[in-house]
TrEMBL record:
Belongs to the vitamin-B12 independent methionine synthase family. Residues 3-317 form the Cobalamin-independent methionine synthase MetE N-terminal domain. It catalyses: 5-methyltetrahydropteroyltri-L-glutamate + L-homocysteine = tetrahydropteroyltri-L-glutamate + L-methionine. InterPro entries: Cbl-indep_Met_Synth_N, Cobalamin-indep_Met_synthase, Met_Synth_C/arc, UROD/MetE-like_sf. It comes from Musa acuminata subsp. malaccensis (Wild banana). The lineage of its organism: Eukaryota, Viridiplantae, Streptophyta, Embryophyta, Tracheophyta. Its EC number is 2.1.1.14. This is 5-methyltetrahydropteroyltriglutamate--homocysteine S-methyltransferase. Pathway: Amino-acid biosynthesis; L-methionine biosynthesis via de novo pathway; L-methionine from L-homocysteine (MetE route): step 1/1. Zn(2+) binds at H648, C650, H659, E672, C734. Binds 2 Zn(2+) ions per subunit. Residues 433-756 form the Cobalamin-independent methionine synthase MetE C-terminal/archaeal domain.
Amino acid sequence: MASHIVGYPRMGPKREIKFALESFWDGKSSADDLQKVATDLRCSIWKQMTDVGIKYIPSNTFSYYDQVLDATAMLGAVPERYNYTGGEIGFDIYFSMARGNASVPAMEMTKWFDTNYHFIVPELGPNTKFSYSSHKAVSEYKEAKALGIETIPVLIGPVTYLLLSKPAKGVEKSFAPLSLLESILPIYKEVIAELKAAGASWIQFDEPTLVLDLESHQLEAFTKAYTELESSLSGLNVLIETYFADVPAEAYKIITALKGVSGFGFDLIRGAKTLDLVKSAGFPAGKYLFAGVVDGRNIWANDLASSFSTLQALEAIVGKDKLVVSTSCSLMHTAVDLVNETKLDNEIKSWLAFAAQKVVEVNALAKALAGQKDEAFFSANAAAQSSRKSSPRVTNEEVQKAAAALKGSDHRRATNVSARLDAQQKKLNLPILPTTTIGSFPQTMDLRRVRREYKANKISEEEYVKAIKEEINKVVKLQEELDIDVLVHGEPERNDMVEYFGEQLSGFAFTVNGWVQSYGSRCVKPPIIYGDVSRPKAMTVFWSKMAQSMTARPMKGMLTGPVTILNWSFVRNDQPRFETCYQIALAIKKEVEDLEVAGIQVIQIDEAALREGLPLRKSEQAFYLDWAVHSFRITNCGVQDTTQIHTHMCYSNFNDIIHSIINMDADVITIENSRSDEKLLSVFREGVKYGAGIGPGVYDIHSPRIPSTEEIADRINKMLAVLETNILWVNPDCGLKTRKYAEVNPALTNMVSAAKVLRTQLASTK
């Protein structure tokens, strides 16, 4: 019985690639240095999978930024502004597309389906010229082969690539990138020919868009693409891999009818209905079924007995020699190796499996199906499953009762937003086009060292508080010098916006090295929600009061919202997600009310990940939006009219959920706008009325590029064309923690200058 891994984490067990990338970007190391670190990591991963016994090992799943950008490079689909003149795409063009440079902005970045991973959105038009411009897939296959390791090269499928693309700047918005299918298939044929010549026997095409609600012409594109590639693929085994949700019946029917395809990979964790399809609709004779029974998106140990039962049922349908045990998706969405966790207690640790352990689980299931069941391994797994179900630390009856009691109300504030904004303005006395930032300020090396030393008990609490107070004071003074209207304390006490809160809530556990890539070199360390959630004590009040005491200007209290905490954590899988979210909402509600009592007049409850959690299938979206929006309202339903509630969202497509955003009933929302070509503004041009305060981001903080005053003023003018002057705020796209002060200071200076220029212009036209 064979085993397969869809993909593997790229950053390394100790974030080796992150540090190598940042050293290269800062000019402290060479391209050769970066490539050596990457080569060493890839080789170690391949050897690890070989040693475990995995048969189908993936290659070309490593990336210096993201796999969609890699496909853009392979196709030579570089937007004109980067002045690409042909040939093999190097790091200069590649990273300019990802991060921008001094003269041109980066390409748009958005969420990869419903995950916290991001990808760079391809920009295409009818005149886009394609050429085979990156041989990465072939070189990595050869790299593994030189080690004596046979791999399956993985490519983003041609249809998914086009469906995830957008019209380039200057191209009609109605342009359909899918119309370019015939233009990109010749490049795929060249790649396939090179892989065949190099000795590849399998190729994996990732086509996750197959799980979406596609129109008939989009589904037909899969038939067209793989029929066109059929002769080129002759002599190769071809795997079409899907993940993240059920494959709809029509899509299942179309792809399983493809003649040149040898196998199909299905996510049987988030796509359990696909299992019913296999049973009811049948499975094509002679084809391989890659059964994704080991969860690639969470860190809980697999229930081996349950998975084994599922696999046995599938074996009876597809045949013993055609069933392959696999992960549900790439393991890049989970942490790397549980071995590196030295501080988790043994009970919780026994409930977990990170990427390295999931590879072992996949192989153990494959061996069990082949009649070589490791009884001791299965027995230990069963004991851990039982321990988790019966552990008293998982359940808190008081919390469960409080969450259950929420169902009787929709938890809206008593007064409408227009009246609240009037009351707030009388108290805050803000100018038109008020300026603010999203929360965090640059996290310097000294600041990180202070937090690290405090956690390691190398400095006292008194020394820690003194250092953080000095940092807050510096950030407050800087904002006053810049003449920003509503201030933030900069969040110097926080390494991560979710981890910080999870550390202070019950029901959470934390890792030392449980890092997961979010985009580029950006890694996050999601907390683990293992039990019922409550707030034992205040979490932010001390720092917020301290910051407010340093200035006469309004100081925002900064919180992470319940939906974002949920979506950016590894969530318990033994109860519905909405129940856990309601528990978190009640905990945040207590914090909001304590901040108000402490005199904080503006409280921001970030819901950066609300759109991210939207189910991929339309039939499931209304239910999610109902409980997600309700959870946000729970957090602030009890505050006074004069307390201004802000929220923040970023790096997703919000236009399709704008009415749910309005239904959140926040007083002010700040939202990503600049990197997505001001896509958000189109929804207001189309007539959606928004009466609360809104701050579409005026510049992209994920790029080191510093926008001019004129550029920012131009963006604000575009906003004023569709939004009322009295509701518009001026702010960056997101928090500033990943930037340097040398970038932040001039960018914010220009932002404030642009707001003042426009205030003067608006005053003169009255």
